[in-house]
Structure formats: structure tokens, C-alpha cells
Write a structure and sequence with these properties.
- The chain is of the alpha+beta class.
- It contains 22 helices and twelve strands.
């Protein structure tokens, strides 16, 4: 049997012997017997033994395990043309169809290089397969197929050419004002956050302020540049179950372009690009109206008057009388938590500041200047730019029982902030350096100790691991080696 230099890198000694073992049934050397014992899933995949493969998968063997030559089971199944084994690994094993080996070659490269058209078609039908993936040498599966010319390579090449010519699927990336942009997924469900940002044709300057978030009704997570948002969308019910006690069927995820929680105020204050200011403004307004900016009445009235100017233009005495601020109009400028309790008592003050703002000669009437002025008035709000999590705090209602307070936990570059989930009242705001934290058992809670007033409290939440990692990151305590739950979801 003749072996030529392998397309996927050199053929290792153990792999050559494995080929001899499989193809010519020579006695198995001790080194290769060790391989068979250590990697039974790999052996059953390359032999196409679907019965054994099923048993091993049911027993919990990992489809992602790499052997001593840095190949996963699916690489063997694809290289040896075992279509049923490949399908089993993808469907039952939930194997990533873009899983790379040690030389950064994908299952599609393996199947294409071997000229296995049936497996190539199987992979191309998988919604997460990257049709445009390249290997370590920058070669596409089609190039590898045409170089190797193995088995049914001509039909394989035809399938790859047809796949490459298909139009890209698109995904909607929403902004906080409800608008969206459809972005081409040039790498299918394997498209990364960074690739989506590039597909939105945002300038390099704009990209540094924002990132992609995945948000449903009660859970929002910032993703990292290398995360694959479409894959997060697919497993969102599992994420909701892992991080909350909510019904995952009631949480519908969407992708948003939002402010990066790591963005410092010093950098934001230097932003001059009108588009960046608009996106920042839309998010700040959304947070204000949802009640996430707890502030004194005077601050909320000033922000409401700015919003009136931005939405309705200059003040007009005949048009903007007291009756103008109906409950519906108030909802567009005042936090929802204040509509019933205070907003109607503020109308005269809001209209007065609106009029003063309109007649002031020192205020630019250009839209992005007004939006920037709105942001300037938000920067000193403790919770501005925070990522919000949910949890519970137990307080002593009496000597015999405890009261449960549901809270939002806001984390930003300033520190930690607790808000009453029902009233939106700010319960406590602690700056970095004034408190200490400790992650509890099984990441189910975290404890906070205030250095200023010696107060201690515990927040119970399944998001405790994420919260503590973000605290470490934004306070400068996280090292590059601190990797766990936060790498899985975001806040890097």
C-alpha cells in the first residue's frame, strides 16, 4: 500500500499504522492497540460501526474529543466516507459540523478531500455548516477536492460549486429604537460577532463602542467577538434554563447592536460620530423609559424636556400647552414607573424647561448635538451603561420570617447597583474600591461586603458566576487565564 503526503498535514506514524490495520488487517502493534482502547468513539466512527457508535454516545462519550493526532470522530467518519456514522455524530451527538482538527481542517475539508459526495451533501444540508470555511493554508473544501481528485470528486466538486453560488442567508440585527439591519451570514450559522459587525459596514471607530447582544423578554447577554450568535439563538432555551428560573418558551431571543458594557465614560465622552451618538442615544432613551435610570425628579424632568425637543422640535406656545402632555405623550419622555405616580405633577415644569431649552441661544438645534446633550445628562446617573442581571435578596421582615425582594443587579464601569425590580428604586450603589465580593457555592449566589458602612448582603441568582466575572473584569481584577462561564456567554 502506497502513502503520499497527507493533505491535512503529515501522516503520523500511528495514523499510518491505523490505515494498515483497517485496510490490510495486519496485526495491531501495541501503540495502535492503545489508540483503540483510548479512543473507541474514533475507532467506531472510522469503521462506520453505527451500532457501537450509538452505544458509546448513549454512554456519554464526547464527540469533541481529539485523539493523539488531533482528530475528532467526525474527521475519521468524513475521511473514510462513513455517511451513516457522520449523520449519527451530527444528529445524535450534536457535533459541530465545523469542528477543526489540529491542522485547522473541517469535516467538509475531510469529506471533500476524500471525494465523498454523499457526506458533502449531508454536511451542506446542515444549517450550521460554514460553506466558505478555509483551512490553515487558506484553501476551501472545493480547492482541496480538486487537488486530491479522490473517489467521486467530480460530483463532490459540483455540489461544492452549487453551494458556493447560493445567496447568503440574512439575520436581523436590531437597534434599541426598534429599527434593524439585515446582515448577510457569509459563514452561515458559523458567522461570528466580529464578522456580523463587519457585515453591518460600521466604521472601525463605531465598532469599538458597540457589540452584539442576544436579548429576550427577561434576559440579556453581551456576546464576545468570537461567539457565534446564531448558535446562541438555537440553544437559547437551554441558556435561559441554566441562568434563570423562567419558562424558556416565553423568552424569544433577538440580536441587538448595543453599547459595549466595557466602554469607559472617558472614551464615550470623546465620541463625535453622529451615527455612534444616535445609537448611544437610542439605548439611553430606552433604558430611561424602562426605569433603569433611577434619578432625582429634577434630572428626570430635564431629560423629559430634552426628549420633547428631540421628538417635536422647537417649543410652540400655541401647540405645546399643558394639555399637550397626555399620558400617551408622557410615555415617550418619562420612565414608565413614574407615569402614574408623578408625571402628571411634572407637566408644568417639563413644559417650562422645554420652552427654556428651545429659546436658549447657547444650545445647538442640530439633532446629534441635542442627542449628545441628552447623553451628557445621563452620564452621572449611577446605572448608566450597566448590564443588568436578576436576583433575589432576603431581608428580615420580623424575628420569625424573611421578606424576599426581587432585584436588578446593574454592573458597569462605575461599580455595582441594586434596584428594586418592582418599584425601580435604587437600593444601593457601590463604587469599585468601596466593596468586596465573594462567589457562593455552585455559583448560585454572591455576597457583597461594603467597606464604608460594614453592611453585608447576599444576592441569590443563577447568574452569580457571570456577575462576579464582570465585576472582576471591569474592576481590573481579571487575568487572561480567568476563563469559565463568562467565556461561554460574554463580557470578555
Amino acid at each position: 500500500m502506497i502513502f503520499k503526503e497527507g493533505y491535512f498535514g503529515y501522516w503520523s506514524y500511528s495514523f499510518v499504522l491505523l490505515l494498515l490495520l483497517l485496510c490490510e488487517r495486519v496485526p495491531c502493534p501495541p501503540r495502535e492497540r492503545q489508540w483503540v482502547d483510548d479512543f473507541p468513539l474514533h475507532r467506531s466512527a472510522c469503521e462506520g460501526d453505527t451500532a457501537l457508535l450509538t452505544k458509546l454516545l448513549d454512554s456519554g462519550f464526547s464527540v469533541n474529543q481529539l485523539d493523539s493526532d488531533h482528530w475528532a470522530p467526525i474527521h475519521y467518519a468524513c475521511w473514510y466516507g462513513k455517511a451513516e456514522a457522520t449523520q449519527l455524530l451530527l444528529e445524535k451527538g450534536k457535533c459541530n459540523p465545523n469542528l477543526l482538527n489540529g491542522q485547522l481542517s473541517s469535516p467538509l475539508h475531510f469529506a471533500a478531500g476524500g471525494g465523498h459526495s454523499e457526506i458533502v451533501q449531508l454536511l451542506l444540508q446542515h444549517p450550521e455548516t460554514d460553506r466558505h470555511i478555509v483551512d490553515q493554508q487558506g484553501r476551501s473544501p472545493l480547492q482541496v477536492c480538486e487537488e486530491n481528485k479522490q473517489n467521486d470528486w467530480e460530483e463532490t466538486a459540483k455540489l461544492l460549486q452549487q453551494a458556493a453560488s447560493k445567496p447568503y442567508e440574512k439575520v436581523r440585527i436590531y437597534r434599541m429604537d426598534g429599527s434593524y439591519r439585515s446582515v448577510e451570514l457569509k459563514h452561515g450559522n458559523n458567522t461570528s460577532v466580529q464578522q456580523i459587525l463587519e457585515g453591518m459596514r460600521l466604521s472601525q471607530e463605531t465598532q469599538q463602542y458597540f457589540t452584539i447582544w442576544i436579548c429576550s423578554e427577561n434576559l440579556s447577554l453581551q456576546l464576545k467577538p468570537y461567539h457565534k450568535p446564531l448558535q446562541h439563538l438555537r440553544v437559547w432555551p437551554d441558556i435561559v434554563t441554566e441562568l434563570t428560573v423562567l419558562d424558556p418558551q416565553r423568552e424569544t431571543p433577538q440580536l441587538f447592536l448595543r453599547r459595549d458594557v466595557r466602554l469607559s465614560l472617558d472614551i464615550e465622552k470623546k465620541v463625535e460620530d453622529p451615527l455612534s451618538i444616535l445609537i448611544l442615544f437610542d439605548e439611553a432613551r430606552h433604558c430611561l423609559l424602562k426605569g433603569f435610570f433611577p434619578s432625582p425628579d429634577s434630572k428626570l424632568i430635564t431629560l423629559a424636556s430634552l426628549l420633547l425637543h428631540i421628538i417635536y422640535g422647537n417649543y410652540e406656545s400655541k401647540k405645546h400647552k399643558q394639555g399637550f402632555l397626555t399620558e400617551e405623550n408622557l410615555k415617550s419622555v418619562v420612565p414608565i414607573s413614574k407615569i402614574k405616580s408623578k408625571a402628571h405633577h411634572w407637566t408644568n415644569r417639563i413644559l417650562h424647561e422645554y420652552k427654556t431649552l428651545s429659546t436658549s441661544e447657547g444650545v445647538s438645534k442640530e439633532m446629534h448635538h441635542l442627542q449628545r446633550l441628552f447623553l451628557q445628562n445621563c452620564w452621572d446617573i449611577p446605572t448608566y451603561g450597566a448590564a443588568f442581571f436578576t436576583g433575589q435578596v432576603f431581608t428580615k421582615a420580623s424575628s420569625s420570617n424573611h421578606k424576599v425582594i426581587r432585584v436588578y443587579v446593574g454592573i458597569n464601569t462605575k461599580g455595582l447597583h441594586l434596584m428594586n425590580m418592582e418599584t425601580k428604586a435604587l437600593l444601593i450603589s457601590l463604587k469599585y474600591g468601596s466593596f468586596m465580593w465573594q462567589l457562593g457555592e455552585a455559583d448560585q449566589y454572591f455576597q457583597i461586603h461594603s467597606l464604608e458602612n460594614k453592611m453585608n448582603f447576599i444576592v441569590h441568582t443563577k447568574q452569580a458566576g457571570l456577575i462576579v466575572k464582570l465585576l472582576m473584569k471591569l474592576s481590573g481584577q481579571m487575568t487572561p487565564n480567568d476563563r469559565s462561564l463568562s467565556d461561554k456567554y460574554g463580557y470578555g
